[in-house]
Write a structure and sequence with these properties.
The chain is of the alpha+beta class. It has 2 domains: 79 residues, no CATH class; 157 residues, Immunoglobulin-like. The protein is built from 4 helices and 10 strands, in the order ααββββββββαββα. The strands form 2 sheets. It has a 5-stranded mixed β-sheet. The termini are far apart. The structure holds copper (II) ion (CU). Copper (II) ion binds next to loops.
């Protein structure tokens, strides 16, 4: 049922999203072909040569009404039985913070700021007055919860096969956080915490091997035209093994102590 031309699937829910996308697109293909076939039929059947005089009564049977009603009902079924349940699953079945890798992503013109809570699992306080070139999220390092926090720019590293729970927000305008292969897309809105989650199932390295492209990266794209530099707002999602994730965190913690 998948529709051709979609990106690789690299998250647990990607096949469900593609199934719904496939249902929608294939049903639109059927409608498109059927409507144009009917249009062509009408052009030939009711050409001037065959009907020199107009019929002022038009159609007397009601079958076209039934066809349109059937299309409307099938679209309602598509919405109620497939699309809304999938949407509900994405926004209401968030993983618990205990089992998930919890990260804050703060969008700005034109970068993705990444904020990990560190070993204590608690995000440090952030303050707009502390925002500076070397502290883009305004993290308060004097706050006990903030001392061990890890920050990164345009590089989001997560372990494979565990839920990732992202608290998404923005510093300036509306951005849209997009991970194509994970089938994730969520607007980042200033002053609002939008949770978004997924379970990555294929590491970056495995995807490189699958595609035969040694330079492949999962891209973090912005899907909102957020300003003149929108085209260069680009981050990378690095999906790694548990072991590599632990050593990434250890390495970052090490550089904090220096
Ligand atoms: Cu943007």
């Amino acid at each position: 049922m998948n529709f051709p031309g979609l990106p690789q699937q690299a998250s647990a829910h990607a096949p469900q999203i593609d199934f719904v996308l496939g249902l929608e697109h294939w049903s639109m293909v059927v409608l498109f072909v059927a409507f144009f076939a009917y249009f062509a039929f009408v052009l030939v059947r009711f050409r001037q040569g065959a009907h020199p005089r107009a019929d002022y009564h038009g159609m007397r049977s009601r079958w076209s009404l039934y066809v349109v009603a059937a299309i409307a009902i099938s679209e309602a079924v598509l919405l109620a039985a497939f699309e809304l349940p999938e949407w509900n699953d994405r926004i209401n079945n968030l993983p618990s913070p205990e089992e998930a890798t919890v990260v804050r992503v703060v969008a700005e013109q034109f970068a993705w700021n990444i904020h990990y809570p560190g070993p204590d699992g608690v995000f440090g306080r952030t303050d707009v007055n502390l925002v500076a070139a070397d502290n883009p999220i305004g993290l308060d390092r004097s706050d006990p919860a903030g001392k061990d926090d890890i920050t990164a720019i345009n590089q989001l590293t997560v372990p494979v096969n565990h839920p990732v729970l992202i608290h998404l927000t923005s510093k300036d305008v509306i951005h849209s956080f997009t991970l194509y292969e994970m089938r994730v897309k969520q607007d980042a809105i200033p002053g609002t915490d939008s949770p978004v989650w997924f379970v990555p199932t294929i590491t970056t390295e495995q995807m490189r091997q699958r595609l035969g492209k040694s330079d492949f990266e999962y891209e973090i794209a912005c899907s909102q035209l957020c300003g003149l530099g929108h085209y260069r707002m680009r981050g990378f999602l690095n999906v790694v093994s548990d072991e590599e994730y632990r050593s990434y965190l250890a390495q970052e913690a090490q550089s904090l102590r220096r």
